[in-house]
Amino acid sequence: MSLYSVNPPHGAEEERKPPPQGDAAPQSAYSRIMLVLSAQAFDFALIAGTGLALYQAHVIKQIGSQPIYLLLALGVALISVIAFNMLQSYRVPAMRRPISQLFRMSGAWAVIFAALIAVVFFARLDYVISRFWLVSWFLIGFNALAISRFGLAAVVDRLAASGRFQKRVVVVGGGELARDLIRDLAKGDPAEVRLLGVFDDRGVARSPVMVEGFAKLGNVDDLVEYARQTRVDLAVFALPITAEQRILQMLRKLWVLPIDVRLAAHANRIRFRPRSYSYLGATPMLDVFDKPLGDRDVLVKMALDKAIGVLALVALSPILALTALAIRLDSKGPILFKQKRYGFNNELVEIYKFRSMYADQLDASASRLVTRDDPRVTRVGRFIRKTSIDELPQLFNVVFKGDLSLVGPRPHAIHAKAANRKYDEVVDGYFARHRVKPGITGWAQIHGWRGETDTQEKIQARVDHDLYYIENWSLWLDLYILAVTPASLLKTQNAY
């Protein structure tokens, strides 16, 4: 079998109390988008660099400096990358088959140079453009591409062999449909898919503990815990499309996870248009819902965080320095305060804040909310909490640790309560806000929902705004929130 199996559970499924444990230290995924962008950037640099190197070595010596060569080098490089992309040469499976791709790329390369020669001829640039340069660039450039493609294939093969491109998949549902689905997935490339196990809400009498050599790891509640302990990329429902009620019940539990959910369509009698399907290997799937941020979105958001985060640290450094001095002069104790909070996918992250309380009254677990005229808060602390200056050290989390974003749901402390109940007990689906990285500011904050959350209504409103942000995320929404945040800090009625 080409998929990796897991150990069967000990005893009947009903007897198991703790949730299933994730596999030990799974390899972190390597972003396919990052690989594609890197390959495209390398090809662009290689093609343009080859043309410019030949220009430097031959043309300048013969006829002197000619700026048109720079334009041609950059233009051909850009057109080549676009053409190779249209030929799907930057897909991961294609990168692993360099010989077949080079046949395609050679055709595109020849057409591009034929068009270049035609442009040179009809624009009467033949007295400026060296024929030796064109021929040399055509031959040397393609050979350089060929060598780089074999090198890229070796790198991608090594990453694939280590599981860096695998989609880590769980099957939801059992019986014949799950068996057929697993058999279909087993025909695919093991470097593309890793099946972790099966989850089913039905008991042993209706759903066996082993399906095609893969263990039944528990029910859907167990899957939620499992996905927080190990990386799960995709949950595939092996259920008939007519089992609407059962699917909806399971989706209500799974929507809090940052994973993709698909419905296996290989056994459904209802047929849709081809464009309605996505594919896992050769197995057709119907998309149920996607994780909030795709790979490309994650890269865009990360780039925004790093770029603006660094600029903010530089611009705000005087305020950071003055605040640190004021805290030191106002009361004894450390300048910074570290606190554990829930982060992406319910993982614990340690965030930095300026200390705003007396050192002997710090509340690391936030078990008691700060209220108006709270005696634990220092004089400087009242000011920096009102103005949210105490949050500025979280820029270090954004820039250096990467466990916070500039914009996102605020990371709530692990023991924070509203009306003496933990937030997840007060709000149904509370953990769905952890499907993205938490942020320093967010949609809830700019609408006034910051500071004390002592009632169910306040935390419900904050969570509703957080979920709206997650479901409607865009780069422009992040930029808007960042632009509006300074003005929103003037609303201090809930910040103590």
Protein described:
It contains 16 helices and 14 strands. It is α/β, with parallel strands linked by helices. The strands form four sheets. An eight-stranded mixed β-sheet has the order 3-4-2-1-5-6-8-7. Helix 1 runs antiparallel to helix 2 (68-86), helix 4 (98-122) packs antiparallel against helix 5 (131-161) and helix 9 packs across helix 12.
Name the overall outline: flat
Strand content: 5-15%
Biggest pleated sheet: 8 strands, mixed
Order of strands, main sheet, comes to 3-4-2-1-5-6-8-7
Task: Provide the gyration radius in Å.
Answer: 28 Å
Which structural class do you get from the secondary structure elements? alpha/beta
Q: Report helical residue fraction.
A: 40-55%
Distance between the termini: 60 Å
Q: Please tally the helical runs, counting DSSP H or I stretches of 4 or more residues.
A: 16
H/E topology pattern: HHHHHEHEEEHEHEEEHHEEHHEEEHEHHH
Let me know the average pLDDT.
Answer: 81
Domain count, please report it: 3
Show unreliable segments: 1-18
Number of strands: 14
